[in-house]
Write a structure and sequence with these properties.
With 279 residues, the chain is α/β, with parallel strands linked by helices. It is 41% helix and 16% strand. It has a 6-stranded parallel β-sheet with strand order 2-1-3-4-5-10, with helices on both faces. The chain has a two-stranded parallel ribbon with strand order 6-9. It has a two-stranded parallel ribbon with strand order 7-12.
């Protein structure tokens, strides 16, 4: 018997990779126009009609600074929307895998965050995603990730290449640490967790810690450009509306302890992507 897989947020950079990953399993890919998760009636109607065995809930409002200015919208989409998905999944017996974020932490820990560390988001976006986590049943899976990049959609790697096309320096933050994550690698692990109906929280990132400044230097070097063009600045100098965690490093402890292979070092998919985007 074939299990139908519903992917929400299917038009995003991760959603498109998830759709590819589940292509052989009867995937139904729904973007915001096809399924607004903030609309309870629409979610209940869609899921009870489709009756998927697996739901990968990647749909979210991820504009971090915009969330800071519109907290009600952030909570309606990221928290209440997840409540609607969880409610409908409960009615049809579907397993839910929810995509969450490093922003659920305050970033003050000296070492990497594992899945059992206390949360403490400092931004509206982080609070809304944590609220979404709290809406899920115990049998669901929560996948926290960070610094996602890929061939689809907008992301840091594409931004660096676009800005570097013009002459001059690139000013990048050097006081935030994290683990860049390939959307394709992330989607592959999510497939493993979803098909295996794993419960609980998992941190899923590529390996290797860096800063935005160093990551930009790596992108330029891989593109054959001069990494010395990248100038380090502080988060305070950037002066964004929403605070960012200084430490976004996620230890993939639950994957490791479960015997699930970890995604490779981030330099591997980064090199492939830059070559693809610049060829």
């Amino acid at each position: 018997m074939t299990t139908t897989v519903l992917v929400t947020g299917a038009s995003g950079q991760l959603g498109r990779e998830l759709t590819r990953q589940f292509a052989g399993l009867g995937v139904v890919a729904a973007d915001r126009q096809q399924l607004d998760v903030a609309d309870r009636d629409a979610v209940l109607a869609a899921i009870t009609s489709l009756r998927p065995g697996l739901i990968v809930h990647a749909g979210a409002w991820t504009a971090v600074d915009a969330c800071e200015a519109q907290p009600d919208r952030a909570m309606r989409v990221n928290a209440l929307g997840t409540r609607h998905v969880a409610d409908a999944a409960r009615q049809v017996g579907a397993h839910v895998t929810y995509v969450s974020t490093d922003y659920v932490f305050d970033g003050t820990k000296a070492s990497a965050y594992n899945e059992w560390d206390p949360t403490g988001p400092v931004s509206v976006y982080g609070r809304s995603k944590l609220a979404g986590e709290l809406e899920l049943d115990p049998g669901s899976a929560i996948v926290r990730t960070s610094w996602v990049f890929g061939r689809e959609g907008a992301n840091f790697v594409k931004t660096v290449l676009r800005v570097a096309a013009a002459p001059g320096e690139l000013r990048m933050v050097d006081d935030q640490r994290g683990c860049p994550t390939s959307a394709a690698d992330l989607a592959a692990v999510i497939r493993t967790l979803a098909v295996g109906r794993y419960p609980g929280t998992f941190h899923v990132t590529n390996q290797g810690v860096t800063t935005w400044w160093q990551l930009a230097r790596d992108v330029l070097a891989l593109a054959g450009d001069d990494p010395e063009r990248v100038v380090p600045i502080s988060s305070d100098e950037l002066d964004r509306p929403a605070p960012r965690p200084a430490n976004s490093v996620l230890d993939n402890a639950a994957l490791r302890l479960s015997g699930i292979p970890l995604p490779p070092d981030h330099h591997e998919p980064l090199e492939r992507l830059v070559k693809e985007l610049t060829s």
